[in-house]
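Cross-posted from the bioinformatics board.
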Amino acid sequence: MEYVNLKGARVPVLGLGTWQLSGAQCADVVRAGLDLGYRHIDTAQAYNNEEEVGVALAGSGVPRDDIFLTTKVWYERIAPNELQRSVDESLTKLRTDHVDLLLIHWPNAKIPLGDSLKALAEVKAQGKARHIGVSNFTVALLKEAVEVHGVDLACDQVEYHPFLSQRPVLDFLRSHEMFLTAYSPIARGEAATHPTLMRIGEAHGKSAVQVTLRWLLDQANVVAIPKASGEKHLKSNFEIFDFKLTDAERAEIDALTGNRRLINPGWAPAWDAA
Ligand code: NAP
């Protein structure tokens, strides 16, 4: 495993996403991931699977301190009292007294950002979250959070893959010693069949998905959380630490990045131009 070390956090660069995993399948996949060596798990209140993630963590035999666990407060629950209450519920479901990273899942224009951030910082001060951050924040929102409200955030979790540039967000995060967690890092499966990624993979005996993950994790301040539903994908997504892309290959993938955004609900902010 490789790590991003920032602001006192030691973040395994490869995590396991759990959106759309539920019930026994979720517990089984998270457990299988931990058995394979995953030490970074991403869940959220909105995924309705914190209990199953908690079951898997508790039954795995892996010491809690060895796992980097992230959850996210749903954007309708980020008013201060509700945020606190929701985090307590999450911790009960996750069977732990703290998460390693607590994120605001989406910005919410109807709730003053400063109030939510203050509540987030209080949760951290209470020891219920080792680090705090945001998700789906644009540069303008990051500036407001970090520069206007002065809150010490570690991370912004955003959609990032070879078909969607995040250059402005990444530049901001790097200049503030923050990291970017790439969600939908394999473009929800689309990367698997992209001809350029497949061709580069063939040169290394690797798949297009493995090339995609390697490309992401070669970038400073970037970690990625691909989701997998079974042993085959879990295992192959983990087999990315034994090869290197050339500078020319990385440049070729850089040139693919465009504006293909896959996650764009009605409550999304006005995104940065790619
Ligand atoms: P993703 O990880 O880019 O893609 C998942 C899809 O790719 C699934 O259909 C999966 O299939 C397939 N896949 C996985 N490994 C593969 C492989 N080696 N070869 C071929 N196909 C493969 O998409 P995502 O689930 O949207 O994003 C990942 C995680 O990011 C989520 O689970 C969640 O934790 C987080 N996320 C956060 C937000 C947010 O708003 N903060 C939004 C979206 C996602 P199988 O399931 O069949 O294995």
